[in-house]
Design brief:
Order of helices and strands of chain A: EEEHEEHEHHHEHEHEEH
Helix content of chain A: 25-40%
Oligomer: heterodimer
GO biological process, one term (chain A): response to antibiotic
Structural class of chain A: alpha/beta
Strand order of the largest sheet of chain B: 3-4-9-6-8-7
Family (chain A): Belongs to the ABC transporter superfamily. Macrolide exporter (TC 3.A.1.122) family.
GO molecular function, one term (chain A): transmembrane transporter activity
Largest sheet of chain A: 6 strands, mixed
Order of helices and strands of chain B: HHEHEHEEHEHEHEEEHEEHEHHHHH
Mean pLDDT of chain B: 88
InterPro entries (chain A): AAA+_ATPase (IPR003593), ABC_transporter-like_ATP-bd (IPR003439), ABC_transporter-like_CS (IPR017871), ABC_transpr_LolD-like (IPR015854), MacB-like_ATP-bd (IPR017911), P-loop_NTPase (IPR027417)
Helix content of chain B: 55-70%
GO cellular component, one term (chain A): membrane protein complex
Largest sheet of chain B: 6 strands, mixed, barrel
Strand order of the largest sheet of chain A: 6-7-8-3-9-10
Bound molecules: adenosine-5'-triphosphate, magnesium ion
Strand content of chain A: 25-35%
Number of helices of chain B: 14
Radius of gyration of chain A: 18 Å
Largest interface: A-B, 27 and 22 residues
């Protein structure tokens, strides 16, 4: 059996608030196999981002277990988690999160710096990824000089540069118009066909339609986990 | 990786140029004042060491008390208690290299129409060696000159300049108390002594001539001072002991009776002067270091602000796999860069300031490689010390908290 990219068992996360412990995520079980494209949906406040942060090893769960490519995340120290994020996960955020003072090329190459890759090779791979997202001509520009859609494509290039197995995207089209959103989703779909597993949070059904599987959250629980209806799949 | 980090540190500094420059200014002022103070302090130490060397080493001055002080030999007159015979006896002691009886005083020197008031020293030839005088032209007088009480003189640079201007003093005749003296030697330059008196404002003549022609002496064979030089610094305590015993015995002082002479250890005086300037230069350095400390706190302050401002950036970096120690190194490097850059500018300004001080005031300054190294080491130390806390705060940030930061 091929190891699942993601396997969570009884995952829970509570935030301590002024009103006491608030359970944002309760008893979540989920497995995502290599090569899957999963959309996570659900109303605001249902715990989607909380879940994504746990999947990204950016936050630690209050209960339950999380296995990323077979390793138990709770057993890893901060440096090992950093290395895991660096090599196995690519993040795409709603707000793009590029470093404003760096050129696009340097932004894309940054994960390689921490992976210990040589400068010349960093350049080459960064340019390659920028070309893949159609921004080869902007390598020397600053993030503030390009549009939101372009920034998100740079963020995707950065997520891809270290050849991760998994891309985590929390509302990547949340700040983009529908046309640009479609471009971004086409890019994700192409990457997924190339074998990368993708987990993507969205509120919009037509964005979720790009994924083959839709997981729905409500009040910190998974309420449905279904393949995308066939007519929606053929639509793209 | 280090290169990439250096580049980023440089960028971060450039992104807030005004702030970086102002932060650096603290270090510039700190390092500049430390370098300048050290240059001045070490200069003072050097000057004192030079002066001490010029005075002659391992010297004692035996000063005669008045006879009435001892009581015993007081015939009422109160002449000097030391004699030339005492000097000769001291010269026989072990560990003594030079002994010279001295009679000195201020006298008017006359050459043609020129007048100059100077210290006239009547003494014997060993004096020249004991005081480490050099003879730049001519010769010193000898024992025969002392025996015959010839009217010859060695002249110091200041006295020579004032009497002869640009003329060569050698062979010229000056008058002291109406008596003509032929200049047979010109003394090398020494500068000031520890009391700030010009040692070159002097004329040295044979003791016998001085007593007969210049000062007059109602007590023949007696003398006010005897200069004694020990062979080595180590020999000084033994020499002092023997000398005291010898003089007491020669002066027939009984047990319990006070000495009728004083011993002044010039080496001890020199040591204490050297110690004083050493303490002074340490103090100067310490005061200047306070500004260095203030500069370091400035760096810490700015780095803390910078960490807060860049919290989100730190979160992004953590998300893409930056390890804590990379973040720590990044911020330490920035602090280090500011302090080392400030140190470089401070060094230039400090050295410049010291040179300017030297040019404007004639103060001796010494800029040593070691003081520059120390300044650099301290600046690097300050960068690391004051940069560590902010860098540690940055590295300890929680990834998700940092990412959420607006
Ligand atoms: N740091 C936090 N401290 C306290 N409560 C939090 C924190 N983060 C999230 N929550 C709470 O946990 C719940 C889930 O939040 P989460 O951000 O996961 O929702 P979401 O599904 O991503 O919503 P949205 O669609 O609006 O992004 C919310 O009720 C939120 O108020
Ligand atoms: Mg969310």
């Amino acid at each position: 059996m091929v190891e699942a990219v993601i396997r969570v068992v009884g995952l829970g996360k509570s935030y301590s608030t002024a009103a006491g412990l608030f359970p944002a995520l309760r008893e979540v079980d989920l497995s995502i196999e290599t090569g899957e494209f999963v959309a996570i949906m659900g109303p605001s406040g249902s715990g989607k981002s909380t879940f994504m942060n746990l999947l990204g090893c950016l936050d630690t769960p209050s209960s339950g277990d999380y296995f990323l490519v077979g390793s138990r995340v709770a057993d890893l120290d901060r440096d090992q988690l950093a290395a895991l994020r660096n090599r196995s996960i690519g993040f795409v955020f709603q707000g793009f999160n590029l470093l404003p003072r760096m050129t696009l090329e340097d932004n894309v190459a940054l994960p390689l710096v921490y992976a210990g890759v040589e400068r010349a090779q960093r350049r080459e791979r960064a340019r390659q990824e920028l070309a893949r997202v159609g921004l080869a001509d902007y390598a020397g520009s600053l993030p503030s000089r390009i549009s939101g859609g372009q920034q998100q494509r740079v963020a995707i290039a950065r997520a891809l540069v270290n050849s991760p197995r998994l891309i985590l995207a929390d509302e990547p089209t949340g700040n983009l118009d529908s046309h640009t959103s479609e471009e971004i989703m086409t890019l994700f779909a192409a990457l997924n066909r190339g074998g990368i597993s993708i987990v993507l949070v969205t509120h919009e059904p037509d964005i979720a339609a790009y994924a083959a599987r839709q997981v729905r959250f409500r009040d910190g629980r998974i309420v449905s986990d279904l393949p995308t209806p066939a007519q929606a799949l053929t639509a793209c | 990786m280090l290169k990439a980090m250096l580049g980023e540190a440089w960028q971060a500094m450039g992104a807030n140029r005004m702030r970086s420059v102002l932060t650096m200014l603290g270090m510039v002022i700190g390092v500049g004042s430390v370098v300048m103070m050290m240059a001045i302090g070490q200069g003072a130490q050097y000057a004192v060491a030079q002066t001490i060397r010029s005075m002659g080493s391992n010297l004692y001055i035996v000063i005669s008390g008045s006879t009435s002080a001892g009581g015993l030999r007081s015939g009422g007159g109160g002449g000097p208690t030391l004699t030339i015979a005492d000097a000769e006896a001291i010269a026989e002691l072990d560990g003594v290299s030079n002994v010279a009886p001295v009679q000195q005083g201020t006298q008017q020197l006359v050459y043609g129409a020129n007048n100059w008031s100077s210290t006239v020293v009547g003494t014997t030839p060993p004096y020249v060696d004991a005081r480490a005088w050099t003879i730049v032209s001519g010769y010193p007088f000898g024992d025969s000159d002392v025996r015959a009480a010839t009217r010859v003189a060695l002249i110091g640079q200041t006295a020579a300049d004032n009497l002869f201007g640009n003329d060569d003093p050698l062979g010229k005749t000056i008058r002291i108390r109406q008596s003509p003296f032929v200049i047979v030697g010109v003394l090398g330059k020494k500068g000031q002594n520890l009391d700030g008196r010009d040692q070159d404002d002097t004329v040295i003549i044979p003791l016998t001539t001085a007593q007969r022609k210049v000062f007059g002496n109602p007590f023949p064979g007696s003398v006010r001072l005897i200069m004694v030089q020990a062979n080595t610094a180590e020999a000084m305590p033994a020499v002092e002991k023997q000398m005291t015993a010898l003089l007491r015995q020669r002066h027939r002082l009984r047990e319990g009776q006070d000495n009728d002479f004083y011993l002044r250890n010039l080496a001890a005086a020199a040591d204490s002067a050297a110690e004083t300037t050493r303490v002074m230069s340490v103090l100067l350095g310490a005061i200047a270091s306070v500004s260095l400390l203030v500069g370091g706190i400035g760096i810490m302050n700015i780095m803390l602000v910078s960490v807060t401002e860049r919290t989100r950036e730190i979160g992004i970096r953590m998300a893409i796999g930056t390890r804590q120690k990379d973040i720590l190194a990044q911020f330490l490097l920035e602090a280090l860069m500011i302090s080392v850059a400030g140190c470089l500018v401070g060094l230039v300004l400090g050295v410049g300031g010291a040179l300017l001080t030297n040019a404007l005031t004639d103060m001796v300054i010494v800029i040593s490689g070691s003081s520059i190294l120390v300044a650099f080491g301290v600046a690097a130390g300050i960068g690391i010390f004051f940069g560590y806390y902010p860098a540690h705060r940055a590295a300890a940030l929680d990834p998700i908290e940092a990412l959420r930061h607006q």
